[in-house]
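Category: protein sequence paired with discrete backbone structure
Discipline: computational structural biology
Format: plain text, a pair of labelled lines
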Amino acid sequence: MIDRLEQDLQFTQTALKLRSHRQELLASNIANADTPHFKARDIDFKSALANALGGTGAAGVAPVSLARTHAGHQGGEGATPFGAAAKYRSEYQGSVDGNTVNMDIERAAFAENAMQTEALMTFINKRFRGLTTAIQGQ
């Protein structure tokens, strides 16, 4: 029983972390809409989640560990495990400054991701309410 609950929670935890990382990427795209030569990035949520749950890194390969060759080098701690899943978005309309951010697409993706995150949170809340009811026997 505990193993099944742990697997269920691992899925929702991974999905929520991936949604959060995608929201950060989309917010970065929107914030850099006027930055010359900025390339918009996004995540294919379905494949990234499948790869993350499959035990490999989000890009489908084992996570990379960074070697510190000098004491002044920073370690790789704190990097998101989904960083490798971020891909550059294809350019829909060329711009003079080389920026690939399309604000209509970014806003729509941001709103869609926020709605999916809210739905996931609602699912998690209902799941815990159901478990609480089952434990209390009401």
In short: The CA atoms of residues 17 and 82 lie 9 Å apart. The radius of gyration is 19 Å. The beta strands are 41-43, 86-88. Helices lie at 2-31, 45-53, 103-136.
